[in-house]
Amino acid sequence: MKNDVTLEIAPYLRPFVGNNDRVVVSGATFRDCLYDLIAQYPDIKEWLFDIHGTLKAIIVMNHKIITLKDLDSKICGNDHIKIIMPLGGG
Questions:
Q1: How far is it, in rounded angstroms, from Cα 79 to Cα 3?
Q2: CA 68 to CA 56: how far, in whole Å?
Q3: Are 58 and 71 in contact (CB under 8 A)?
Q4: What is the value of pTM for the model shown?
């Protein structure tokens, strides 16, 4: 069953999603929702996945970090989901 889920978008990713701080996507799993996000905002794909399909972004749901192996986990419409990017510097 597909759910509409609101993704909270980190400030530095907002330019790739029309400067929105939240985006509504639809899907039954995290993977579905990420693909729906990419369908709506294609420019964000390179920030989410590398060329081998490895997840680059950090996805947090209800205070738990979601890994690549968790992408096929079911989601609910009331899940609190954030997309952030690991940042480094020196």
A1: 10
A2: 9
A3: no
A4: 0.84
